Give the backbone structure.
Amino acid sequence: MVKVGVIGYGYWGPNLVRNFINQKLGTLVAVAESNSQRHQAIKNQQPTITLFTDANDLILSPDIDAVVIATPVFTHYKFAKLALEQGKHVLLEKPMTSTVAESLELINLAEKKNLTLMVDHTFLYTGAVDRIKKFVDDGEIGNLQYFDSTRINLGLFQPDINVLWDLAPHDISILNYITENKPYSVNATGVSHTNNDIENVAYMTINYESNFIAHFNCSWTSPVKVRSTLIGGDKKIIHYNDLEPSEKVRLYDTGYEHKTMQDRNSILVDYRVGDVYIPKLSNQEALFGVANDFLTSIINASQPRANATLGMEVVKILEASQESIKNNGKEVKI
């Protein structure tokens, strides 16, 4: 049994605690939370838990094999580095770190010590994304042409990261998981309406050397909540709506064919509108899958689905987007 400790019991911590409690391959033994007012809630959730106020004390405890870090992103690197140095496996909340350099250092350290380093990209463990990947891998939609994501709501303004760093990791991780296409560059624009240089509305385009393109629309200031992604191929199109209670994924047998006319300045387009297929999806909680994959990877010394390399690739794109925003949308090569 892998003995697990969780650092942070704020927004996401309670969900992590709940899912690690119910694992067969490991046992949750400790939680570190600096806000003592939350300690009773932790005890109510897991009465036998050991409580720490200082995260470092949890990391240094000899009774813990693996550390789950659910704290603000600027703390990820220091906590993860200390845990790895102490020989403990690490699961980090997304995004992995604040910089690519930090991510790379952690990856090298984990490899040197033969430890599991994983990032909690929860959506990779949903039945919806599982089915989407199968559609893509089986060639059901043909050659990928575009990925168009909208993730907007009247959301929580973060004090340390902008809206792309907060919301886009979900969709970037899905994008990188379902396609082997490697991004070439990023263009991004955004604006801060709070005068603190932290963008609350932002748009990002990821460019590829092929004809594939990806676009992201993220906002904390929308009066409506939208979680919608279109994944277009030259045969069919996937619509993924995460707010749908059951029919989250729809496969549209819809497309077009075109012919270039003799003068090459005009084209003839034939449209095709066919059936819509709605697959049945697994309803297992995604975070349960995250916890299980983390523990399985530790026991089997195997690579988790949401491995650290994938986590670092997400940070690469986010880092490039930040540079692009600060340079008025300039193209930044990855």
